[in-house]
C-alpha cells in the first residue's frame, strides 16, 4: 500500500474510508473548496477517535489535492493517507490546461505514482452520465498504461453511478487491466442490484461512497444494496467511503463528514447485516483493493 508517508503493509491500514477528500478545488464547485488544513486535521482526528485508520483521498491531478500537506496531516492524526493521481471529468479543468496535458498523461500519472516527492497510490478516472465521452476514453487509456507500468489500482468516478459495465469493459477488455485492480465508485447512486452483481462477478470492487452528501432518492437503499451483494456471495467486493467534497459537508460544519462512516454506517452494518460483513467492508476488502505489487516504470 503506497501512502503519503511511504509504502506500508496492507494489514497495517485498519479501518478504511475508501473514498474521501481532504482537499479539493474545481470550477464546477466554485466557492465550496476544501482548502483548510486545520479543518482537514480536525476531520481526520474525529475519524481516528472512532477507530479510523486510513483515508483514501481520490482528489486527482489539477484539483487542489495539496499533496505537500498530506504527510504532516498523516503524522499529526495518526491516520494513513493514500493520495491519487489521474484526471476527473473535463468540466473540472480549464480547457486550455487540459489540452496541454493530454499528450503526456501516462508520464504524468506514472511520475506522480513513482517519483513525486509525495507519491500517489491510486489512479482516479471518471465516466460520463450513461456513456463514455472522448475525454473519458483518453484518460482511461492513459490510466491503463500507468497501471501496467506501476501496478497501481484504478478508481473510477461513475457519474450518477452509471456506465459501470462500459467502464469495466473499456479498462479490462480493451486495456487488459485485471478486474481486481479496478474500483467502481458511486454505485449507490444507481441502485441496480443486477449491475452491482455483474461488477462483483467480474472481480472488480463495488464502492458505495457518498453519505457525506444527500442522495435522497437512493441513500435509503444503501443497506439493501449491500445486503443484496452479500446474499449473492460477494461480501469481498464491497467498499465504503464518505466522499466529502465541500466544506459544508464536513463534520466541522453542517454535514456528517468522515466520522459518519463509523458513527452512523458501521453500527447499522454490524446490527443489520453482520459484524463479519462490516469487518470485510471496512478492513479486509480495502486492504486488498488498494494494495499493489509496485513496479518500476519501464
UniProtKB/TrEMBL annotation:
Protein name in the entry: Phosphotriesterase
Electron transport keyword on record: no
Transmembrane portions of the chain: none
Keywords attached to this entry: Hydrolase, Metal-binding
Segments forming a coiled coil: none
Residue positions, PTM N6-carboxylysine: 124
PROSITE patterns xrefs: PHOSPHOTRIESTERASE_2 (PS51347)
Lineage: Bacteria, Bacillati, Actinomycetota, Actinomycetes, Micromonosporales
Species the sequence originates in: Actinoplanes oblitus
Entry similarity comment: Belongs to the metallo-dependent hydrolases superfamily. Phosphotriesterase family.
Residues making up the signal peptide according to the UniProt record: none
Amino acid at each position: 500500500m503506497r501512502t503519503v508517508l511511504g509504502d506500508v503493509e496492507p494489514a497495517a491500514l485498519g479501518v478504511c474510508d475508501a473514498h474521501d477528500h481532504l482537499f479539493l478545488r474545481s470550477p464546477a464547485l466554485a466557492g465550496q473548496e476544501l482548502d483548510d488544513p486545520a479543518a482537514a486535521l480536525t476531520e481526520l482526528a474525529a475519524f481516528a477517535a472512532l477507530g479510523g485508520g486510513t483515508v483514501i483521498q481520490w482528489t486527482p491531478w489539477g484539483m487542489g489535492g495539496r499533496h505537500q500537506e498530506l504527510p504532516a496531516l498523516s503524522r499529526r492524526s495518526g491516520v494513513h493517507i493514500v493520495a491519487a493521481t489521474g484526471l476527473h471529468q473535463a468540466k473540472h479543468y480549464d480547457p486550455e490546461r487540459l489540452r496541454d496535458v493530454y499528450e503526456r498523461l501516462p508520464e504524468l500519472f506514472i511520475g506522480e505514482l513513482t517519483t513525486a516527492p509525495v507519491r500517489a497510490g491510486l489512479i482516479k478516472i471518471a465516466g460520463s452520465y450513461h456513456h463514455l465521452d472522448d475525454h473519458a476514453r483518453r484518460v482511461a487509456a492513459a490510466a491503463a498504461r500507468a497501471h501496467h507500468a506501476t501496478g497501481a489500482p484504478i478508481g473510477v468516478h461513475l457519474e450518477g453511478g452509471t456506465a459501470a459495465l462500459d467502464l469495466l469493459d473499456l479498462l479490462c477488455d480493451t486495456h487488459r487491466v485485471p478486474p481486481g485492480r479496478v474500483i467502481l465508485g458511486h454505485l449507490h447512486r444507481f441502485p441496480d442490484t443486477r449491475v452491482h452483481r455483474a461488477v462483483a462477478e467480474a472481480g472488480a470492487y463495488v464502492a458505495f461512497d457518498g453519505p457525506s452528501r444527500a442522495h435522497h432518492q437512493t441513500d435509503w437503499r444503501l443497506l439493501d444494496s449491500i445486503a443484496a451483494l452479500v446474499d449473492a456471495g460477494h461480501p469481498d467486493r464491497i467498499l465504503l467511503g464518505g466522499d466529502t467534497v465541500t466544506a459544508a459537508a464536513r463534520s466541522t460544519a453542517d454535514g456528517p463528514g468522515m466520522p459518519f462512516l463509523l458513527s452512523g454506517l458501521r453500527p447499522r452494518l454490524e446490527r443489520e447485516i453482520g459484524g463479519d460483513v462490516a469487518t470485510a467492508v471496512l478492513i479486509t476488502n480495502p486492504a486488498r483493493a488498494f494494495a499493489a505489487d509496485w513496479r518500476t516504470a519501464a
